[in-house]
Amino acid sequence: MFAPYLDRWSLISDGEPILTHSSRLLPVLWQDRPAMLKVATDNDERYGALLMQWWDGDGAAHVYAHEGDAVLLERATGKRLLLDMAMNGEDDEASRILCRTAARLHAPRPKPLPDPIPLTRWFRELEPTADKVGGTFADCSTVANALLSDPREVTILHGDIHHGNILDFETRGWLAIDPKRLHGERGFDFANIFANEELPVITAPSRFRRQLAVVSVEARLEPKRLLQWIAAYSGLSAAWFLGDANTPQVETALTVARLALSELAA
Known about the structure:
Elements lengths: L2 H6 L2 E3 L4 E2 L3 E8 L2 E8 L2 H13 L7 E5 L2 E5 L7 H6 L3 H16 L10 E2 H4 L3 H8 L1 H15 L4 E4 L8 E3 L5 E3 L5 E4 L19 H14 L4 H21 L3 H19 L1
Parallel strand pairs: 7-11
Antiparallel strand pairs: 1-3, 2-3, 3-4, 4-6, 5-6, 8-11, 9-10
Helix pairs in contact: 4-8, 6-7, 7-9, 7-10, 9-10
Pfam family, one: APH_6_hur
Protein name: 3'-kinase
GO molecular function: kinase activity; phosphotransferase activity, alcohol group as acceptor
């Protein structure tokens, strides 16, 4: 899988391959620079590479080369990890970094991005689940439908802003990887700060309320609107996990949704 690109782009292997559900990655050196060779195995990753090119290194990793399923990316070499920060007393700062990076990605660009995925299509699995299961799913679907029918501050979205997708690029700062190439209201991109299941404290009400205050200020979002996006996104995540029969993560996502819905009702 990697061999044709190693030859074509004059790359030197610089680590072990990394396999994910959607791509194959290999750390490499390109012109003496640390880089990451990524070969997509699904359409989301292929679309994401086009968005990375469009950002042109502003808020996201540089794309050094792109052909077919393969993309050669600037590699993060910094030691800091946002997930570690969030779990070790720097949760507020980690959230602020996520918000600042998202703001860079949302900034207008001189040329349009062709064929982004509208949020209405991204949310298409929530309503059928809500009709079938009801309960919190139905509440989240109602909120999502209201948001999607009245979008504000529409822009190109990363689509998966969380602690593992914003990395430390040292002198270049914190930059994004692995976008989903969505289009819709910018508030959507801040919801996953509250829903990253790798962060054990996301279901703690005190953490939820504190980060609600931090993110709403840093992202310049009305708290009510942010709560609505958290509820909508968490409901969608729970629907996806339900489809994968991932029961623990379904409950985690629904707990976050209930926190948001409870705050909205207060």
